[in-house]
Amino acid sequence: MQLDDLDTPSLILDLDGLDGNLDRYHGYFRQHGIGLRPHIKTHKCLAVAHRQLQCGSIGITCQKLGEAEVMLAGGAGGDVLIPYNIVGAAKLSRLAALARQTRVTVAADSEFTVRGLGQAARTGGAPIGVVIEVDCGRTGVGSAAAAVALGQLIQSQPGLELRGIMAMPTPPDIRPRLQEVLAAFDRAGLPHPIVSGGSTPAALTAHEIPELTEFRAGEYCVGGLAHLRRGTHTVAQCALRVLMTVVSRPTPGRAIVDGGSKALSASLYSDASGTCMGHVVEYPEARFVGASEEHGHLDVSACPEPPPIGTRVQVIPVHPCPCVNEHDEIVAIKGSRIEAIWPVHARGCSR
Amino acid sequence: MQLDDLDTPSLILDLDGLDGNLDRYHGYFRQHGIGLRPHIKTHKCLAVAHRQLQCGSIGITCQKLGEAEVMLAGGAGGDVLIPYNIVGAAKLSRLAALARQTRVTVAADSEFTVRGLGQAARTGGAPIGVVIEVDCGRTGVGSAAAAVALGQLIQSQPGLELRGIMAMPTPPDIRPRLQEVLAAFDRAGLPHPIVSGGSTPAALTAHEIPELTEFRAGEYCVGGLAHLRRGTHTVAQCALRVLMTVVSRPTPGRAIVDGGSKALSASLYSDASGTCMGHVVEYPEARFVGASEEHGHLDVSACPEPPPIGTRVQVIPVHPCPCVNEHDEIVAIKGSRIEAIWPVHARGCSR
What are the distances in angstroms from CA A183 to CA A141, A146, A209, B150? Predict the structure, then answer.
């Protein structure tokens, strides 16, 4: 089956681009002795997770329990980090069940979370590892003293194992904050076998924080418009695209494609030149200026030869993770050949 | 089963709010003699579509063929308008099949689209109705002369039935443009039994365009943040919400909930007070200032008593249509009681 046989909009993944990114990033982390623990929330797909494990990943990262359950069921959940505060009886019961089946580490930033985790470990009968999140703008504890106090609480809870710290994101300038917490841990005699950094934009500078033992990255494997603009990924390395068809040319400067926010997600990218929703590979002068659910709006006024109705184009999304969540399938391609159609196994697993 | 038994994040739909909106809007259109043809892309759910049909809808609107197939299979596709340029052999074949099973009207704004539709009608052996879209900023023809030329082309194609015109959106100031096209149609002897307006923001002023014979609206039935701010829907009338739990309180002014862009969609609402992603029903002073995929960021600094960790809140999304597309189920509630769990039957049908 050929790419030309595929109806639009369809989510496609170029395997050469994917494999090149895996070589590149896994090579970097191997070189620097930092464990790469891919975040599966980007692709949500067992086929990609297994490829990442074959490249030497130390385990996987899942943002939600449901993703971990899917990955474990599919043979990719041998060592799972869930960098999330797990709250509520229903989830704690599922976490306890997960911990009976595989090695699990979760994040915590409050006494509330830690007490729930302790209860789950004791009633579940299996140890649960915990890393303390250091606040870098989203969740996390705000001071080294608070991290130590929470670490001591974790140590006091039978069934919980304090495994260290994590932060999100971890650009190099975060290092002093992590060092301060680690020094306080050392003074208090608290263990920190895991020091986990994260985010693709900070991936290739991870070696500037030598304290990191492992790293969580998701988008590195497929890129996206933000990475293209940042220069970490070329167009060819932005391996995840949405195949679309031009369905209307109402004015000389306007082209409408059959993929909108339901095919790309509603994510926007903004810079000095304005806001856009994707990069059109075949028409780099086109601007993907906006979208409704099923219509993508291209400004093609700068294109030397704007695309006529019926033209098929590949669009690199702003943000691959939510884009994938809109789709049930990923069509894996090599050049113009379709290699496989993979289910998005963990789509919609937000609990 | 009670709402309290539901894990988070979950998409919930308050049936009293839904039914109140159906009464209100269907009553308005009945009063003004305009047919309401609900756009099922908002809820994507047969249960809601059947409720809308019971309220006297003249048929349904589907943005994509796949949605129409799902609605027809579920008994709600007796008369379908697809206000979309259907392009490409795969879709035209499906359209022809649909036309053999039910009454179908589609939009066109180009000779390219019309010739494809004609071919489909002839090879499919069933008539396909066509309305010409008048450009109001997205797709559509740009002049009355172009509309007439396209109408004549449609008339010349065996198997196609010219059924009139449509536009999107149709606030009152669009009226002169429609009148101009209709006058040109009359002069050319072209029929226009359908004059279709659309969009919920323009719904309650539809009577100011007496030429309209029918109206497409989707969000009217559940509201959303934009409608709340516009004043067409109260908080109670914003019937679709995402139930979330506060999972972190890293600082006094910051609360993090377990629903982000994967629960709400990445849609933003912007006004003079800034950008936000939802309205927190129980904490109206909170601002839903941003989100990553699984984390919603609330600024709770203005709340007299900010929500502690573990608090469950209902969040009205900015835009219900893409929000629904993130979920597999809609939990129908009455007050605190769960009445049903409905599949989002047409989720992901973007082809």
Answer: 16, 13, 14, 75
